[in-house]
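ugh ok fine here u go
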Amino acid sequence: MVKMQNDEVRRSQRMRQQRKMFSGLETGEALEDLRTSDLESTDTETLIEDEYIESEGVHRRSTGSVNKRVKQGVKEPRKTKEEWNRIKSKRISFSQENQGENNALFEALIDYEASLDVLVLDWIDAYERDGQQALVEFINCILKCCGSDQTINTDHLVDQDSVADTLYEIQEASRINLMRDYPIISKSNLYKGFKKRLVDFVDRWIDQVSLREHLYNSPELMEQFQAWVIAMSSSTFRSFRHTSTVISLAMVTSLSGVLNRVTKEEQIANKQYETEKKRHSNEERMKIVKTRISTFGKQMAFLKTTINDFFDSVFVHRYRDVDPKIRCDCVHELGLWMIKLPSIFFDGIYLRYLGWVLSDISPLTRLEVVKTLSKLYSNNEFIAGLRHFTERFKPRLIEMALHEIDSNIRCSSITLLNGVRLCGFLEDHEIDLICTLLFDTDSKIRKRVSPFFLSKVEELFENKIRELGDPALKCKIDIENGDFELNKLLWVKYKVIAELLVQLDETADNINSSNKENIFVKNFSNTEYLDIASDSKPESRIHMVSMAICSDIEELKNWESLAEYLLYDHVAVFSKLNSLKQPKHRFYQISAPTEKEENVLLQVLYVCVYLDIFFPDYDIKSKKKLYSQIKDEHEESVSRILLGLVPSLLKKFNFSADASVSILRLEQLIKLSVYQHFRQNKTYENLLDLIGKQFMKHPNNLVMREAISSLLKAQQFDELASITQGKIIEIQEEAVNQLKSIRLNRDLKTADLSSKMIENLTIAIKRLDYISSISDCIKVFETNSFSVSLVLLEVAERVISFDDSELEMIINSLRTLKWLYLWKVKHLIDHKNNISSKEFNAIIADRDKLFDKFYPIIENKKYYRIGYYVVSFLIDLYVVFLNLKTINTHQIFDETIFIIPKKMQNIIISLLNYYVRQYTKLNESKGVKFLTDEETDQELEDNSDEKTSLVSEKFMCEIAGKVVLAILNGAMSNEYISYLIANRDKLGLSYNHIVCELDILEINGKIPEKN
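structure:
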């Protein structure tokens, strides 16, 4: 035992000496000095300078201070030219002497058919024959794993004092031929899975040498092995440093398993000794047992010393290495050690390393440490020991969940925090803060936060039940509502969910600005932003949250009960109760929802029904052949329930625009064939009446959009088309009459309009815009007594003297005019065989007059916002008129009528150039070419509300898209192509995709040469 302790002391001293010799090679500053002096030697040496640790990779902690990581050691003086020449000649001779030798062990490792167990046993047999030569082969194998062809011999192995010098010579000799893509990181098929195979080999090797007791009886084995591996772990070459670190970490992992085994054997021996002692067994037997205990104790001491040597010599320095892959490996293995050998590693001394790495600059490393901590928090045995660590690093974990850029790290951090919550280490206000991530734009984040919300629901639900008292826990209260009874506990759960969602919605508005970019906007009332997403329905915050939580709350899957809860008149029943002390009174007081909560629950109801239809709970895999039939039957059964539910909801909540939006969306989930199958034509007609009333009652954009979507869907069902079309015509007539009543024979082009009049006109025209977008409206809009198009032109021409309050009104007028002309063109195409020249010429002349009316608007950049809509309207008009070529087969009309006039083309390109200037100024784009050098952007104002980057890009790209469309269809000249292409790759991806459509003209040789 004394000999073993002396060997350990000697080995520890040698380790410290070798680390000191390489101490200047593991920090940014020292390595930079070394690299600078090395690169002064030869040009050949510069070929692999990336193998050095780069100084720019020095790790910074979250506090901003730089970890210098310089050990105490004297920096070598700069070498003279003669000294470099001597080193160079020595290096060349080393290379010529040792390079190119094959290594049987390495060849076996890359042969994936070779058994690792057999390979380890063969090595041990070789070691038992010639220990020095076997170990030399192992070290040479490690050098091959580093990508070096250099080898050592037994002399190098024995001389441990010169390991650092020998390794330096090997590195210098390997400069030229060293593999950049060394085996453990190589993506080559030859080395696929090599890292795992190497680690498995080391694990089996340690296991076998410990079982055969070579590990304990031959201390020089580990002593010599450590001398080389630890020295390589401080190398300036990444391949040496990384490979040796992986091997060292694998050694500690395997040694931890061996220590666990020896510890268990020692405990068994101790129990056996105590048993024999109680039995008063013979002394010889007790002596044998005591000897075993002593042997196990020595082995445990040796293993702990070896593990500490590797940890102090490798991990402590490499966990903060400049290479993130090395840091990641260190963190991963430390987590394994804590689980495998908690008696040593699950301690604050080692846990702090995980906490420090939470602020690592590499996302890969941060993700690895979060995964490692998640494993610890999920193990009940570690909870008590994690309390102090949690108190110290919890703010950082919450910060990562809220503000981390990498979405994968955020997801993993939230999962980790859920483990912290289950351990009881999160405060209520911290859980509330994390719950605000339910409004995050990333669906994966929202799904991960769902358990936090569910825990809040359960906690608040229990509090509500306690308020009701003991009777509420034992019985149900019968609530009279038709022929059914409801469980009050279910109602309380719905009330709790609504309360929390409303509370979170309000909290999200107060989130600090640093995280606000990841939060859904609360509403879409702004006209410009709503129009940006005009092709898709904007989803509310509550909708996105509901998509994340509904599948996890069993009570919400019972959406029929939720609908019944919403339909119940809580106020009426509450007012009938005589005594405030009655249990029913307390129940209604606690479960009755507020108006906000009802609106929230209606959105939740829509999501529940949507998920039930498109993501049902029944087993699909077991019924693949019948899936289509089962799906149709399930959708039909849901639709039958909605037949009666939707009208009832519309009647009860007709006063609320927000509620109407959710209910109208719910109506669109109904399978319309159900009305015909069950002969519910009258029910269908009544439903259309309710939809029309919602459309005409609410001035809300979203209500009108959803109502029109419902009507549009109804149009697609041919069996009930006549009923639908009749209702649409009624709505059109009602909208026109509303416009008539507001106009009152005024000339809207010049009339002085009050703010109330402008508001009413805006709403009326908006309704005309929506209803004209889904059905032919010419017969209703254009009559002998009243022309909607003339009124719309009057409103559009107000742009010359308009103010900001009239902007939306004018824009809606232009949009409605576009729909009117589109329907007129469709009418001509549908009746092309009966069209007269007079009728055709009239519509062409009408179209050309529009240009004369709108030319001043486009020319004056003061009206750039209106100019965008005017230009879009006119280009669309000309492009649509190209369809009339189909009725011009006999050249009845001049082809020039289908080409935009030259004057108009120039003014359109001028406006596009203005938008390009605007976008360039707001986004600070470089190298953009403009049409002219004139200062046409003098009107650009610093108004961030009107000229956000998003809106400016929309204006530019929409007009560019219209111009490209006109050029491709022959409505505009090809001479503008060079201007459009000149700014490719300078104005954003959207602009690039638009301009790329012109490539087809370049292929056909239709692009003119640049002027």
